[in-house]
Design a protein that fits this description.
The structure is a single chain. Helices cover 68% and strands 4% of the residues. The relative contact order is 0.13. It has a 3-stranded antiparallel β-sheet with strand order 1-3-2. It has 10 helices and 3 strands; from the N terminus they run ααβααββαααααα. It starts with 12 loop residues before the first helix and ends in a 6-residue tail after the last helix. Helix 2 packs across helix 4, helix 7 packs antiparallel against helix 8 and helix 8 crosses helix 10.
């Protein structure tokens, strides 16, 4: 009969699969725009502008803005003004402390769970990152650098810490784009090769130390960009 419903367990997998809700899709797209610096620090955003940029309705855009304000990725200044927050030196100090505390710990936990397959995936990601550097592809560099770190933190199997770190990345992502724009990708050294070597050795303590150095180096580069100084090596 027309009123009967088909048991979803009997549907083909493609039909039974749950699609990502539109509001979640819009949120993730806007989040990436902030994370990878497509929206610059201090830049204002409007619902109308984002509905055009994201080709989305006002309701999901409004919900995405609300969620990102709650996560600190956007700032509500009153009178309906919303902007991408600009980092201050005090904010950098807080971010640096939290990153240098949490990310090395996640890295040590990931090292203890590393497999050959996971290590090869990290190497492939780092190779893609290096290719983006060689090409001067700022967007590619930022995405691969985030993916490299995210893969490590996901391996740690510590979802609370990993989620906290992911929010921290939203806070400095736009400023990292400024660093790349000012100095170019070729002037942004990292410690990924040392980190991969520590993983290959199964040395969790060393991996944590290397990650701490990588984080400190990145935050120093952002601080130099804020001060208009040459990028430190």
């Amino acid at each position: 009969m027309g009123s009967e419903k088909t048991d979803p367990r009997l549907l083909p997998a493609a039909d039974a699969a749950v699609k990502t809700p539109i509001h979640q899709h819009v949120y993730e797209r806007l989040r990436k725009m902030i994370l990878f610096g497509d929206l610059a620090p201090g830049q204002g955003v409007t619902i109308q502008g984002l509905t055009t940029a994201l080709d989305a309705g006002m309701t999901p855009v409004r919900e995405a803005i609300r969620r990102l304000i709650s996560e600190g990725a956007l700032t509500h200044l009153g009178n309906r003004r919303v902007t991408v927050p600009e980092l201050t030196h005090a904010g950098l100090e807080e971010l640096g402390f939290m990153r240098e505390t949490l990310e090395p710990e996640l890295t040590k936990r990931a090292a203890n769970r590393m497999t050959d397959e996971r290590l090869n995936a990290l190497k492939a990601c780092d190779n893609a990152l290096n290719l983006a550097i060689d090409r001067g592809d700022v967007g590619g560099y930022l995405m691969q650098n985030y993916s490299f770190h995210r893969m490590i933190y996901d391996l740690a199997e510590a979802p609370i810490m990993a989620a906290t770190v992911d929010r921290l990345w939203l806070r400095f992502g736009p400023s990292l784009r400024v660093v790349c724009g000012r100095y170019g990708t070729s002037n942004l050294p990292d410690k990924h090769a040392e980190l991969l070597a520590a993983f290959a050795e199964g040395n969790a303590a060393l991996a944590g130390e290397v990650m701490a150095g990588d984080v400190a180096q990145g935050m120093t580069q952002i601080r130099a960009a804020l001060d208009g100084l040459p990028v430190p090596r």
